[in-house]
Specification:
Blueprint (H helix, E strand, L loop, with lengths): L32 H9 L33 H12 L14
C-alpha cells in the first residue's frame, strides 16, 4: 500500500454537513485482486461508494466515524445527546407508549 492511497467516492452523494459524520476510515485495506476478478466474473463493476443509492457492484463502504478523532459516531452521539442538552427532552427506559 502506498502512502498516498485514496478511495474513490461520489461527493454529490453527501450533504454539506450535519451532526452525524460519514466518512472513510484512516486505514486503507486494498481489495484482494482475486476478489475483484470474482466480482467482475459476475458482471459487477466497481462503484464509487454506496451512498448514492446504486447498490449493484463492489467498492468501499463509508462508515459513521468522526474524521478528526476516528471514534465511531452514532445516532446517539449525533442527535440524542444534542437534544438532551438543548431541550427538556426525556427518554423513558423500558416503557411502551400506549397513547401520545
Amino acid at each position: 500500500m502506498g502512502v498516498n492511497a485514496s478511495i474513490p467516492y461520489d461527493a454529490a452523494a453527501y450533504g454539506p454537513g450535519g451532526p452525524l459524520h460519514v466518512t472513510y476510515s484512516n486505514y486503507y485495506q486494498p481489495m484482494n485482486p482475486g476478489l475483484i476478478k470474482g466480482f467482475e466474473a459476475l458482471n459487477l463493476s466497481s462503484q464509487t461508494g454506496f451512498s448514492s443509492g446504486r447498490m449493484d457492484g463492489y467498492g468501499y463502504l463509508a462508515v459513521s466515524i468522526n474524521p478528526d478523532t476516528q471514534i465511531k459516531d452514532s445516532s446517539e452521539t449525533a442527535f440524542l445527546t444534542e437534544a438532551f442538552n438543548a431541550t427538556s427532552f426525556r427518554v423513558y427506559k423500558n416503557t411502551i407508549a400506549q397513547k401520545i
